[in-house]
Amino acid sequence: MPIQYVPVQVGVVGKPNVGKTTFFAAATLIDAKIAPYPFTTIEPNRGIGYVRIECVCREFGVRDNPRNSICIDGWRFIPIELIDVAGLVPGAWEGRGLGNRFLDELRRAPVLIHVVDAAGATDEEGRPTKPGTRDPCEDIRFLEKEVDMWIFQNLKREWDRVVRLVEMAGKDILDVLYERFSGYGVSRGVIECVLNELDLARKKPSRWSDNDLLNFVHEVRVRAKPIVIAANKADIPEAEDNIKRMVREFPHLKIVPTSAVAELALRKAAKSGLIKYLPGDPDFEVIDEKRLTSQQAKALEYIRERILKKWGSTGVQQVINEAIFGALGMVAVFPVEDENKLCDKDGNVLPDVLLVPKGTTARELAYRIHTELGENFICAIDVRTKQRLGADTPLENRAVVKIVARR
Ligand SMILES: Nc1nc2c(ncn2[C@@H]2O[C@H](COP(=O)(O)OP(=O)(O)O)[C@@H](O)[C@H]2O)c(=O)[nH]1
Ligand SMILES: [Mg+2]
């Protein structure tokens, strides 16, 4: 039976015209609608993007045939689900610009990529302006507030019920709040930790001020739905100073300079066989100079000089990797059924890669593959070292493991 694979969801958010749809199109290589007008994206777009890791095939000297992922030149691309949420404008949490509907799309996404116009070429509502006019730091503050206020409002609406359950029905506040947050994918541990940290665990819900509630929501959200910043339009000269300032002003955030248009151009050129380029590469190679029009050649050279040489890459792949491996702290593991041939029952070599939270144990991995495999778990084998791993051993990134189970 093939392993069931549910891709991690990543929300792509930001005000209109910052490049979300371009980013999404580049990351998924689907031709989504791209236009410089607010609200061109009405329905949220969903598509498959990828994180990139070094595959283990070369290390083991095997030729793999992946099933749930792709291996190109020794790089493994593992699918994740991207959700392109239409432009969020200030006041979205109150319903401005269909904001509530868009925000609801993000409920289950455990991490967000906030696409920011680092060139400052769009005002607070996303209308085009002269580069350098808008301070993108404001956009970072605005979006955090929108997300917090949206959750705050949803929780506030149910607060009478929370009061009744805790103060009249005698339920534990931790259980009640955990249940309220279950739709957002927040763990009990996070709720408990924030309640204690803010000294709210023993305060009666009827005595919580709006400020208590807002602080609580903010602290839970920071832990449960982290945001990474794609400092987009990094190809525009005005972006450089802004990016430096963002890094200084938000030391707790990961800020990745990106150029979504450049990534889209490179992927299209690669797709039509003009260049050799893998998402995330620091450079590309022209396959046949003669096939390029002079305009194409110029555009590619521009991308090389202004983006790749300056920033090291277009940043699109990097920010996705940062969301999954940095902000969410996940690790990639390769489960196999035959520890010598590194294959599954059908002989597929290194067929699957699973993204799991750091700290996932060998037994938890078994459960993740099949409930039965978890129930009958005996031990796991680290294929690299041939060592036996006990049930509670946490798995390392790029581990290749065989699960041994009772039949
Ligand atoms: N210079 C530059 N322009 C970009 C970049 N990404 C997107 N744009 C442009 O910004 C405008 C809005 O892009 P779009 O993807 O529709 O933005 P959205 O409203 O956030 O989805 C379009 O004209 C894009 O070509 C980028 O990295 N650099
Ligand atoms: Mg769009």
Structure overview:
The protein has two domains: about 10-150 and about 225-325, P-loop containing nucleotide triphosphate hydrolases (Rossmann fold, 3-Layer(aba) Sandwich), CATH 3.40.50.300; about 335-405, Beta-grasp domain (Ubiquitin-like (UB roll)), CATH 3.10.20. Mean pLDDT is about 90; it is low at about 30-40. The protein starts with 8 loop residues before the first strand and ends with a strand. With about 400 residues, the chain is α/β, with parallel strands linked by helices. The chain has helices at about 20-30, 55-60, 100-105, 135-155, 160-170, 175-180, 190-195, 210-225, 240-250, 260-270, 295-310, 315-325, 360-370, 370-375; strands at about 10-15, 45-55, 70, 75-85, 110-115, 225-230, 255, 275, 285, 330-335, 355, 375-380, 385-390, 400-405. Magnesium ion binds next to helix 1. Guanosine-5'-diphosphate binds near residues 20, 21 and 34.
